[in-house]
Amino acid sequence: MTMNNLTVTYLFNYAMAHDIQFEATHQLHPGTPSCCRTSIRKMIINLNNDEEGLPMEIAHEIGHILNGDKGKFYFCGENSSSPIEVNAHKTGIKILANYYFEDIPKEEWNVENFMLYYCIPASYKDWVIDYLKSL
Question: Which terminus of the chain is more solvent-facing, meaning fewer CB atoms within 10 Å of its CB: N or C?
Answer without folding.
Answer: N
